[in-house]
Design goal:
single chain, 66 residues, alpha/beta, 3 strands, 47% helix, 15% strand
Length: 66
C-alpha cells in the first residue's frame, strides 16, 4: 500500500480513519511529493513521524526510498 502524505490536517484525519484498513496490508510505503525541494528536510521529518505512528499500530510501514 502506498500513502501519499502532504502533512495537512485532512491527510492526518484520513490516515487515522484508514488505520483499520491499512493494518491489513503486508507492506506500507509513505511518500511525500512536493514541487520544490526547498523543504526536503522538513518533509523527511514529517514522513518519518507518520512511519513511526503507523509502526506503533503494528503496521509494517517504511518511508518510500528506504
Amino acid at each position: 500500500m502506498l500513502i501519499a502524505w502532504d502533512g495537512s490536517r485532512e491527510a492526518a484525519r484520513a490516515l487515522h480513519d484508514a488505520i483499520p484498513m491499512i493494518g491489513n496490508a503486508t507492506a506500507v510505503s509513505v511518500i511525500t511529493v512536493r514541487n520544490s525541494s526547498a523543504a526536503a528536510e522538513q518533509d523527511r521529518a514529517a514522513t518519518d513521524r507518520v512511519v513511526r505512528n503507523l509502526q506503533r499500530h503494528q503496521i509494517a510501514a517504511t518511508a518510500a526510498g528506504e
